[in-house]
Design goal:
The protein is an alpha+beta fold and about 100 residues long. It has 3 helices and 5 strands, in the order E-E-E-E-H-H-H-E. Strand 2 and strand 3 (about 30-35) form a beta hairpin. Helix 2 (about 55-65) crosses helix 3.
């Protein structure tokens, strides 16, 4: 994984340091999904390793609410679903890339 153009899949930071191994996830069938690894910055990596899913969700919501002209509750629900898919798809291991 090259970190030149990769952003954290959880908060969009461009300081990716970890790639969590995962099965492919189809978010919108045939349109949007994630193939394999999920990139994470230091803060998000630490939250994932601590299994602090609420803090990870709030960090993600804080990032996206300023970029998306949608109700915060809609963003929170969508990101919560996305994080659930990550937890279900996550495999053993990770690669430190940064």
């Amino acid at each position: 994984m090259s970190t030149d153009t990769v952003i954290c899949d959880f908060c969009s930071s461009n300081k990716v340091i970890t790639a969590f191994h995962a099965k492919d996830v189809e978010l919108i069938p045939g349109v949007l999904g994630s193939l394999g690894e999920w990139a994470a910055c230091l803060v998000c990596r630490d939250l994932i390793l601590a299994e602090d899913w609420n803090a990870l969700l709030e960090r993600s919501v804080d990032t996206f609410k300023s970029d998306m002209p949608m109700p915060v509750e809609f963003i929170r629900e969508a990101l919560s679903d996305l994080h659930k898919k990550f937890r279900e798809a996550r495999l053993e291991g990770r690669t430190e890339v940064g």
